Amino acid sequence: MEKVLGTVKSWDKGFGFIEIKGEPDVFVHYTQIETQNVRRLTEGQQVALMVVQGLRGPQATGVEVINEA
């Protein structure tokens, strides 16, 4: 599965949403962050991720921080 680039739209208490241009917002949980020693994201951060279809819509997996906000 190929990773796509996105921007963290919101983050609160261990979960949030990532914006991918032209796609619905993607849910992300802190357990899906692969960047070492990172357990939270910041609004505006650039990330690489894979998108899978969850029960309630698109979900992020394999999230890597590309740069800080």
Automatic annotation (TrEMBL):
Compartments in which it is found: Cytoplasm
Keywords, comma-separated and alphabetical: Cytoplasm
InterPro entries, A to Z: Cold_shock_CspA, Cold_shock_domain, CSD, CSD_CS, CSP_DNA-bd, NA-bd_OB-fold
Record-annotated CSD domain positions: 3-65
Major location (coarse): cytoplasm
PROSITE patterns, A to Z: CSD_1, CSD_2
Gene Ontology CC: cytoplasm
GO molecular function: nucleic acid binding
Protein name: Cold shock protein CspB
Protein species of origin: Weissella ceti
Lineage: Bacteria, Bacillati, Bacillota, Bacilli, Lactobacillales
